[in-house]
Amino acid sequence: MKTGIIVIIVLVLLGFFGCSKYNGLVKKDEVVQKAWGNVETQYQRRADLVDNLVSTVKGSANFEQETLTRVIEARAKATSVQINANDLTPEKIQQFQQAQGELGGALSRLLVSVEKYPELRTTEQFQTLMAQLEGTENRIAVSRNDFNGAVNEFNSSVRTFPNNIIAGLGGFSAKGYFKAAEGSDKAPKVDFGK
């Protein structure tokens, strides 16, 4: 009889321990999902600004239509890639990052083209949009860093013992990180001679 009571007490304690670990993983998963939502919000802000930027640039006579078309197409592609916060695999994040990288590249080409139009660069609306775009890029970097921090904490919990047992039973798996774009390890070449 005494042994049965001890076994029940041990099982109840293990149940409380398991529930506590499970609830901790749920809270960390929610932090990751919130951080992902913040990342998406900042990318959406950039996509919204792109429309205004393109409209402003379109107003400039003789602007390269091909450049504008590429920016518009890249924006459409970037906003079409949607990832569920519950499915943040490295492959999905890479797909999202690639679409956003294409938009960033198209914006860079647009800004290089703008250099040929000094009257456009001096307009107040264009300068305001550029300041907002720069601020948004900074916010994206901060959001991505916060997301990677939340993923790091979550992944550490999911992979350590005894949480890994509870994580396996609860269906939790490691999340993917944002990584540097391919080729970003090489310094850009700047040539003012041209």
From TrEMBL:
<dbReference type="GO" id="GO:0016020">
    <property type="term" value="C:membrane"/>
</dbReference>
<dbReference type="Pfam" id="PF04011">
    <property type="entry name" value="LemA"/>
</dbReference>
<dbReference type="InterPro" id="IPR007156">
    <property type="entry name" value="MamQ_LemA"/>
</dbReference>
<keyword id="KW-0472">Membrane</keyword>
<keyword id="KW-1133">Transmembrane helix</keyword>
<keyword id="KW-0812">Transmembrane</keyword>
<comment type="similarity">
    <text>Belongs to the LemA family.</text>
</comment>
<dbReference type="InterPro" id="IPR023353">
    <property type="entry name" value="LemA-like_dom_sf"/>
</dbReference>
<protein>
    <submittedName>
        <fullName>LemA family protein</fullName>
    </submittedName>
</protein>
